[in-house]
Specification:
293 residues, alpha/beta, Rossmann fold, seven-stranded parallel beta sheet, two-stranded parallel sheet, 9 helices, 36% helix
Length: 293
């Protein structure tokens, strides 16, 4: 039996990595807001997630088995400076989507973040208490909690890590770092910020695994190793065969940003690994990504 999966926010960085994931037993659909997209084998529809009626019409049209909710304001500094907008889109709109799915008995996956943690007790498991120290992280934590209360039988919380990959349409830090290093310019990388970064393609496989098995509860989809941004950048430079002195070590605590950043939000993802999640090491994934550009 073919499973239908609807992905909100498919025009974002993570969403682009659903390309090529269509299978005979799986049909993918996506929504975008301001950036129209055409993705291989994926039917995409315009949607403002604040428009609940439009979302309900889409549910009635597609009749998905699972909704993977990626759409969000994900820039921590923007959210810190616009807390009301963050609350409107990241939590209030999500609650309306969950209600619509609950009324139709549709499995709902909420994409959360490792930034729900304060960075003081890493590595974090799914059982550890959240304590976001920025508007973005604390709002995601609140939404996690209420989503579980609203729809405990069919809500899945997927906490996503820092992700990397190559995407010209929705570039992330890796794209910018590669272009800067290749031009012979320096990049700054934090020595005091630790994450369990993962290739976005692996994270997408993890999300699809949770969708196919309709696993409920909280799941971590982090990468396989704890690493500072600086160590990641040095590894990248070596793979590019570029002088590693172009990677400048800097301290996160010395950089003034609107949103406070936790020092270490590395996650333990063993629970998902036992289910079949298989994120690759950064060195291997970076060689694969850079070999294709």
């Amino acid at each position: 039996m073919q499973k239908k999966i609807l992905i909100t926010g498919i025009s974002g960085f993570v969403g682009y990595h659903f390309t090529g994931k269509q299978q005979p037993n799986r049909q993918l659909f996506g929504t975008y807001h301001q950036n129209p997209v055409q993705l291989e084998d994926i039917n995409c529809y315009p949607l403002d997630i604040r428009n609940t009626e439009a979302f309900i019409e889409l549910l009635e049209q597609i009749q998905p088995d699972t909704v993977i909710h990626l759409a969000a304001l994900s820039n921590p500094n923007y959210c810190e400076n616009h807390p009301e907008k963050c609350q409107e889109i990241n939590s209030a709109a999500t609650f309306h989507l969950i209600t619509a799915c609950q009324e139709r008995d549709i499995h709902f996956i909420f994409a959360s973040t490792d930034l729900v943690f304060d960075g003081k007790m890493a590595p974090y498991s799914e059982k550890d208490a959240t304590n976001g120290i920025m508007t973005y992280g604390s709002d995601k934590a609140k939404t996690e909690y209420l989503a579980n209360l609203m729809y405990p039988n069919k809500v899945t919380i997927a906490r996503l890590p820092l992700q990397y990959g190559w995407c010209e349409e929705a570039p992330n830090f890796l794209t910018n770092w590669v272009k800067t290093l290749q031009s012979g310019e320096t990049i700054n990388a934090f020595t005091d910020e630790y994450r369990t970064a993962a290739w976005a393609g692996d994270v997408v496989d993890g999300l699809l695994l949770l969708a196919e098995q309709e696993e409920k509860g909280i799941w971590h989809l982090g990468g396989p190793a704890r690493q500072s941004r600086y160590d990641f950048a040095v590894e990248l430079a070596k793979i590019l065969e570029i002088d590693t002195t172009l990677v400048l070590p800097v301290l996160q605590k010395n950089i003034k940003m609107a949103a406070a950043r936790p020092a270490d939000v590395s996650m333990n993802s063993e629970k998902a690994v036992q289910l079949g999640y298989a994120p690759g090491m950064a060195a291997k994934r970076l060689k694969m990504i850079l070999g294709k550009i």
